From TrEMBL, chains A, B:
UniProt-listed Pfam families: GST_C_7 (PF22041), GST_N_2 (PF13409)
Organism: Neolentinus lepideus HHB14362 ss-1
Residue ranges of every copy of the GST N-terminal domain listed in the record: 9-100
Protein name: GST N-terminal domain-containing protein
Top-level taxon of the source organism: Eukaryota
InterPro entries hit by this protein: Glutathione-S-Trfase_C_sf, Glutathione_S-Trfase_N, GST_Omega/HSP26, GST_UstS-like_C, Thioredoxin-like_sf
Gene3D superfamilies noted in UniProt: 1.20.1050.10, Glutaredoxin (3.40.30.10)
Any one Gene Ontology cellular component term annotated for this protein: cytoplasm
């Protein structure tokens, strides 16, 4: 029996994680330098796995029953199972206080609000033009499940969120405007990261979405290259500096 | 000639400021302990005043022409005129670095994002049920101007945002839910304020809206007493601790 953290993640066909939310946890684990081992879980298996290991539900389904999501970690050191990327990040700082800190003293409330602001400002527009392509890098089993559940929730096909054609340019223009606003906030720090010269969890939570876009569209795609060049290269530099935290477990 | 800052504010019939945005600046000036003198400006006079003193426009009107807003300050020490509450707050920290700091090192970007998150989470729902009553505490000249310009912008009467009736309870329930979310963020700091034990500009920008509600509805109103009791008294305690920064200039 190993005594390192088990990190339950959703696989993509690229051999890396698929979900931006699980990317947040991988980035946080690597940032903290806490050893861990990945266990890959396909979408339809998340609920059974969560119940088996005693993970708490993270939300409620449309029918009122509990819903289970990844990321989840199990830490043999404390015998705790934690779900929800934010709760995991707070747990890691509390349990492994040595080394780099995800939430430097006094910044936890602000970092939670930052993620909310990032979500409303940039992410609402990011999903439509990527949703239909994102499932092409899921394994078949997860792709079928993801399509069925999301289309039932939203009442429309994934392809209808941003149909191919001129409208997509408008969608990408909105994404760019949102990220430009966020870049404006970050630059106010006087450094390249939200808190200035050192990255914190707020940066990792933004980077998780850039990694997701790169993974969905491809590092050599026109879309991803465009993002790297937005705001005078801000996002290209940003992710280049944080990319070391995307590495798989050793 | 006095050499203290001139603070241009919009008067209410209560003898205090009317606008939540100018309240942010009064709270910030008092927090910093920087001496200032208030000059009251009615809404229809803001544009002429701004041009006269050389204040920069803070936005663009529907017809594309520049728009001018308060708060604005003139600092005879530096001979600078600054508009926009955020720009004023940053100016005050930069120009008067001794004493309390509105944006402690590393927190500026996060505090800007916090205000954005507070706006989308709580303020969108706060205006509808207060808009029609808010102009009853403006002087006649400003009330007429405010009604004309806002009704032209939104294409409906101020009374239509939250008509009296059962729908208002739903509006207030949304306000309460939004403030409860924000209280949840702040509590994460481990103290009573966003950064923990000491207030910062993020707190003053929230308090500005509580002061506005108190001013519009009255300190003894059922609405304001309800807000003070929300989240186990969180907001009552919060504003009680910050209320010393609402005092008028000496």
């Amino acid at each position: 029996m190993s005594d390192i953290i088990i990190f339950y993640d959703i696989p993509s066909v690229n051999g890396t994680g698929w979900s931006p939310n699980t990317w947040k946890t991988r980035l946080a684990l690597n940032f903290k330098g806490v050893p861990y081992k990945t266990v890959w879980v396909e979408y339809p298996d998340i609920e059974a796995l969560s119940k088996e290991i005693g993970a708490a539900p993270t939300g409620v389904k449309g029918d009122g029953s509990p819903s289970y999501t990844l990321p989840t970690i199990y830490d043999p050191k404390t015998k705790k199972v934690i779900s929800d990327s934010q709760d995991i990040a707070e747990y890691l700082d509390a349990t492994y206080p040595s080394g780099p800190t995800l939430f430097p003293k006094g910044t936890l409330a602000l970092q939670i609000a930052f993620q909310e602001a990032f979500t409303t400002t940039a992410l609402g527009s990011l999903f439509p033009p990527l949703l239909q392509e994102s499932i092409t890098i899921l394994n078949e089993k997860s792709a079928v499940y993801f399509r069925q559940t999301r289309e039932a929730t939203y009442g429309k096909k994934l392809e209808e969120f941003s149909p191919y054609g001129a409208g997509r340019n408008e969608h990408w223009a909105k994404v760019r405007a949102g990220f430009s606003t966020v870049a404006g906030w970050i630059k106010k720090s006087g450094g390249v990261f939200v808190l200035g010269d050192s990255p914190s969890y707020a940066d990792l939570s933004v980077a998780a979405f850039l990694v997701w876009v790169r993974s969905v569209r491809g590092a050599d795609s026109a879309d991803y290259k465009a993002i790297q060049a937005w705001d005078d290269g801000f996002w290209g530099t940003y992710l280049a500096l944080l990319d070391k935290y995307t590495k798989p477990d050793a």
